[in-house]
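Cross-posted from the bioinformatics board.
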Amino acid sequence: MCAVLTLAELRTFAENARRSSHEPGDHLMLEDSELTSYANVTGGIVKLSRVMRDGRQQLVGLQFAPDLLGRLFGTENKVTVEAASPVDICRVPKHVLEALVSSSPELKQRLLDQSLQDLDEARDWMVTLGRKDAQQRVASLMMLIARRNGVEEIDSGRGAAFDLPLTRADMADLLALTVETVCRQISKLRKDGVVGIRNHRRVTVPDMSRLSARAG
Amino acid sequence: MCAVLTLAELRTFAENARRSSHEPGDHLMLEDSELTSYANVTGGIVKLSRVMRDGRQQLVGLQFAPDLLGRLFGTENKVTVEAASPVDICRVPKHVLEALVSSSPELKQRLLDQSLQDLDEARDWMVTLGRKDAQQRVASLMMLIARRNGVEEIDSGRGAAFDLPLTRADMADLLALTVETVCRQISKLRKDGVVGIRNHRRVTVPDMSRLSARAG
DNA sequence: CGCAGGTTTGAATGTCGTCAAACCAAGTGG
DNA sequence: CCACTTGGTTTGACGACATTCAAACCTGCG
């Protein structure tokens, strides 16, 4: 989700917002004080997941700062919202947001655009989960993170560097693999010289086009 | 996607619509006469898919009648739209739909709600693709089709019957399996007495709760 | 009947998951 | 400063499940 607010809207937003910080693993139920409150991620990364009856979970989305979090007039479908890194958020009560939306058709339009974009991203990820092997999935995730870190010139042979903001377990939940398989594929990318890894977190990519090729 | 139009809106819709029929396999590009025209599926089933560079495809959604098809102010992301069965659709030019939307905030609201629901469904399917084995995926698809055919009392031990509107190949593309694996799992469900199959298409379920249990 | 497309079944292969153990990095307290 | 602990990470051996390749089988239709 991308930022969709104008400056004036952001001001109203900020005046009614309450800030809070959270540690990795904290659950950020959106139904805190008011049902279906809205929140803005101002720092860190939030993971959205669904849990199966047997306890296994599947991440269904990531929210990077400064993404919008939550949903209008919420549906019944439960998504677990959890901090993946240290996270700062900024909540707005339901009625404030509803007022904002009804006074601004453009805002509603942008919320619509954004949810359509989220839908596109979800469908992209369905292809990753359904049709890519372990190597391609791991490479795809690295491409996603690189893009979110401002790396643009994907196929130009340029290099890049970024931190992995997720644990191996979170990556596994997102990619529908096991922790061990994620590790093995990262090791393989490293052995093949596609990426360099320092401290299990810092990734350096000498040539983005080679990583892109591995992503299928 | 569900129907989101009132009767009055449907009238305007119908007055400006052009109907057409299509055979299985036909591509229903929405950019026919006008870019990003909208359409209503009045009969049959439409599949939405993404194609990978190597030619393999992944279905990312199904549209049953009377679902709405297409999207407002379309994004750049290409989805292949194809008839899965004999299909009747009813197209509306872009400007008519835009007029409808701007004259009706409720319509825009409902489009927003609907896209949020689509997002939920896409995320549900991500769990199916990511975390279920072949047997559970096939059972999940049968549950989905049963629900779309009006079967409601899922866990009441009631029976049901419906046609599979997709070929084995389409099921495989939707479930991210091979045709052979889909066949084997259907055969297993049949041998175990969970479903009955006639002519490769007609499914009878003596006890929906047993099928539901197989779906994970 | 006989063809064509879709479907079903079988046997062999390979990829990923499971189980187990070792490894590393960071923080704590002696 | 170093031993110790803890949580996360990495690697290996083995097995299970889905894919691949191949052949046979239905069903509808000319």
